[in-house]
């Protein structure tokens, strides 16, 4: 097992049971405790685990929301595949919304140059990338800027969304489950996401398989409100079946 694979499995276990132990992990993976400690250090620097005596706990247990840069450093290969699969959901022309997020940010970077699209975003970094593209008409939603996620929120972003009609909204979420819906830690961001989905004819969720293990404070949609879920092959078949039964098409990239 490669180090990155081991680290992702450590993260999965931490999120599933709430804590991981250095000695136990070393025995189960047949590696030294020093190797496990290095793995935990990598995951802590990525902002997804917090070291505690003898092991680590997932940051979600602390009510902590990792910064965008930290989230952008994990599940990178999966996020790239998800973004590439999302290109097939783009209209030939028309208007789209791209929500602020690490996976949606990858979609922004690979938008095809042969389509005339209006792209609405609530992220200054994403707007900056899009602004250099001659084939795109970019609309940046204003509002209060959240430093942790670099997303604009509150009334100045909500009011324009209430007057828009777009073809597809490409959405991000911190957590997803059939029972609890799509969730995010911040109620202000949840309100923006809810308005984005309402403004769109179709909604596409871009979420790697780790998002299906977590639930956060603020719910912004039910799974049945989403038309397509694009995830990676790490999502287990039972969860895929539950999501499909709730309504959306599931694409595993």
UniProtKB/TrEMBL annotation:
Record-level Gene Ontology MF annotations: DNA binding
InterPro entries associated with the record: Carb_Metab_HTH_regulators (IPR050313), DeoR-like_C (IPR014036), DeoR_HTH (IPR001034), NagB/RpiA_transferase-like (IPR037171), WH_DNA-bd_sf (IPR036390)
PANTHER family recorded: GLYCEROL-3-PHOSPHATE REGULON REPRESSOR, HTH-TYPE TRANSCRIPTIONAL REGULATOR SRLR-RELATED
Species, as recorded: Sphaerisporangium flaviroseum
UniProt entry keywords in alphabetical sequence: DNA-binding, Repressor, Transcription, Transcription regulation
Function: Repressor of the lactose catabolism operon. Galactose-6-phosphate is the inducer.
Stretches assigned to the HTH deoR-type domain: 3-58
SMART domains: DeoRC, HTH_DEOR
Pfam assignment, any one: HTH_DeoR
Protein name from the UniProt record: Lactose phosphotransferase system repressor
Keyword Repressor among record annotations: yes
